[in-house]
Specification:
This protein has 274 residues and is mostly beta strands. Helices cover 1% and strands 42% of the residues.
Length: 274
């Protein structure tokens, strides 16, 4: 059972070691899925007690994001449930001010609701991600596939950016990417593994929230420090940090292969503030 708690963190700085899991769930493309809604629901087992909503408001598919049960054959890290995301070829949605369909994108993605943070606080998000073996989970090419984002939003400056995000790159490389300051320019890539399929991978993002240079971002994989970047993490003291996760494709026309059905699971979600 997952709980929301406030704790201190211990960290090391050795290279992560991803161990295979015994349970392997065979992925079947376009299978019908039994599950329950994952939006605007309080579920400690599947969502760590956090509230989420779809990034897109319109044209979300019924299979797009669901809370599923291990009794139906789905991979679950602990408890009875996990959160499953699926995007099929041709899927796209929109909100009133932005359309994935018109901007070469597709997604099934949840964004955290009611996220607030005070400057000087340490905020962490822990997740476990499970990617079943599947054809063209990330087609080769210049297209981008993002699974998790730690975002910063500042309405006073009209600024939205990602501090760090989980990316599947070409040749099955799972990595964390960071940006330069609050731009969308790449800073560095930190490789997690080149064998990401059919196992649970634990990732923790830890951020000291600060509008000054004394902030930092740390990412741990399997409780081992992957990297640390010391930097400003809030645009102003009024900025918010929040968590997004799911499947998000962009620059799709730059792919050298066609898109198939994409499926990913998340479990063990936790948010901690100190």
């Amino acid at each position: 059972m997952k709980k929301l708690v406030l704790i201190l963190f211990l960290f090391g700085c050795t290279k992560p070691d991803i161990l295979p899991q015994e349970e392997i769930t065979k992925f079947v493309e376009n299978q019908e899925v039994v599950g329950s809604p994952s939006t605007n629901v309080f579920d400690i087992d599947a969502l760590g007690g956090l509230l989420f909503d779809n990034v897109n408001k319109f044209n979300n598919k019924p299979y797009g994001t669901l809370i599923v049960n291990k009794s139906n054959g789905h991979p679950v890290f602990d408890g009875e449930k996990s959160t499953r995301f699926e995007v099929r070829s041709g899927d796209c949605g929109w909100i009133e001010t932005f359309s994935d369909c018109a901007t070469d994108r597709s997604r099934s993605e949840l964004t955290e609701l009611n996220a607030t943070v005070e400057t000087g606080k340490t905020v962490s998000y822990t997740e476990r991600v499970y990617i079943p073996s599947q054809t063209r989970f990330k087609p080769q090419g210049g297209n981008l596939l993002v699974l998790t984002q730690i975002r910063v939003n500042d309405t006073t400056q009209s600024t939205i950016s990602a501090l760090a995000y989980l990316v599947m790159e070409n040749n099955n490389t799972l990595l964390i990417r960071t940006h330069r300051q609050f731009t969308w320019d790449w800073n560095k890539n930190y490789t997690i593994t080149n064998t990401p399929y059919d196992k649970w991978i634990k990732i923790k993002y830890e951020v000291v929230a600060s509008e000054k240079s004394d902030g930092y971002i740390r990412v741990y994989v399997e409780d081992k420090l992957l990297f640390e970047e010391n930097r400003q993490t809030l645009v102003t003291k009024d900025s918010n940090l929040f968590f997004k996760f799911g499947i998000y494709n962009s620059f799709m026309k730059d792919a050298k292969e066609s898109f198939g059905t994409q499926v990913v699971y998340f479990d063990g979600l936790e948010k901690k503030i100190k």
